[in-house]
# Entry
Amino acid sequence: MGQWLLIMLLVLGVALDKGMIAIPDRWLPWTPISIETPPGPFLGWKLARLADDPEACRAVLAADPPQRYTPLDDVTRGQCELSNLVRYAGGQSRMQPSVMTRCPLAVAWAVFERHELNAAARAHLGVDVAQIEHFGSFACRNIYGRAEGRRSQHASAEALDVAAFELEDGRRVSLSGHWGKGAEGRFLKEVGQRACKVFGTVLGPDYNAAHADHFHLGVGGRVCR
Ligand SMILES: [Zn+2]
# Structure
C-alpha cells in the first residue's frame, strides 16, 4: 500500500514538473504573490512571507502598474518601530488620502480591490469603486486604545480602517450611513464577506460598536466578523 502511494506521488511530481498537469498559482504554496492571481488558500501565508522581505514585497506592487506607492524608510514613532513601509495611494481606485502602511497590507488591498471589491460593487450597485475613504493604518496604541493589553495591528501599520466608498458614478456609500440599508447595505455586507478571503482579520459593524463606522482589515490573525 505504502509503495503504491509513493509511486503515485512520484508520478504526480514528475507530471507537475514537466508541466503535464497545470495547477493554478493560487493553489500552490511556493509560487510568489501576484496581484493578478485571485485569492487562494495560501494567500495569508504568502503575505506573511513578505512581512520581512521589503524587496520582494515592493516587487509585487511594482509588477502591477496601476498600483501607486512610494517606498518609505523604517521609522520609530513613540514606542512603535515600523519597517517595510510604503506610502500607498491605491490601485484602480484612489486611497483618499494616501496612507502610510506596511507593504504586505498594500499588496493585500490590491488583491482585494482587483478580485473582490469591484465584483461586489458591480453586483449590487452596477459600477466600480473610484475612491476609498479611510481612518488610516498606523496608530501606536493597544487594542481599543486601552492603557494595557495587546498591541493593535495598527501599532505596526498592518491594518486599515475603511469608512466609505465613492463610486464611479459619484455616489458615496459609507458604513455609518448605509449598513443594513438597501442595495448599498448589501454591497457593504458582501464587501465584509469577500474581505475575509484576503485579510486575516476583518471586523465590522456586526462585531461591536467600536466598528460601527468602519471595516478593520488586517493582515495576519484569523477573525472574520
Ligand atoms: Zn482598525
About this structure: The chain has one domain: 25-224. The radius of gyration is 19 Å. The mean pLDDT is 92. The pocket of zinc ion is lined by residues 154, 159, 161, 216 (CB under 6 Å).
